[in-house]
From TrEMBL:
Name of the protein described by the UniProt record: N-acetyltransferase
Species this protein is from: Serratia sp. (strain ATCC 39006)
Keywords tagged on the record: Acyltransferase, Transferase
Pfam families per record: Acetyltransf_1 (PF00583)
Domain of life from the UniProt record: Bacteria
GO molecular function, one term: acyltransferase activity, transferring groups other than amino-acyl groups
Domain N-acetyltransferase residues, every copy: 4-143
Transmembrane region(s): none
SUPFAM superfamilies on file: Acyl-CoA N-acyltransferases (Nat)
UniProt xrefs under InterPro entries: Acyl_CoA_acyltransferase, Bact_Acetyltransf, GNAT_dom
Length: 143
């Protein structure tokens, strides 16, 4: 496998390079324009992106926020974590989780938190292997 380089996304061009990976995780993102507009709104609310590059192509990324609440105190919440199908099981997700863990430590956070679907057993297995523990259920109500 080719060398992987991790970097935080800070340009619109690099953000758009994440689109294909994001679309694998979020198929409702129908175009780069829709994706760019959504990410732009989220960035104004504190959303950050970390990408895994293989040469000039993004092959995985994480979207996360620095938050604080009464349960965890200061923590990083991972909204999105995805890798292209062809690079899964190559350790890239592990590298991203480790970089996010180190980022959380640098930012004086107490936890790294994320949600995954109950039916997504492959992701759950991956998260358990990375040391994350299931702490509750996430509930949602359409309004």
């Amino acid at each position: 496998m080719k060398t992987i380089r991790l970097s935080h996304i800070d340009t619109e061009r690099d953000c758009l390079a994440c689109f294909v990976v994001a679309q694998e995780l979020r198929p409702h993102l129908i175009s780069k324009d829709v994706f760019a507009e959504q990410v732009s709104r989220q960035i104004r609310q504190g959303y950050r992106m970390l990408a895994a590059w293989q040469e000039d192509q993004v092959v995985a990324f994480a979207g996360y926020r620095l938050l604080e609440n009464l349960l965890y105190g200061r923590f990083i919440y991972v909204d999105d974590l995805a890798a292209m199908a062809e690079v899964r099981s190559h350790g890239i997700g592990r590298q991203i989780i480790e970089e996010l863990r180190q980022t959380a430590q640098r930012l004086a956070c107490t936890h790294l938190v994320l949600d995954t679907g109950l039916a997504n057993v492959l992701a759950q297995r991956f998260y358990f292997r990375q040391g994350l523990l299931a702490k509750g259920l996430h509930f949602s109500l359409p309004v």
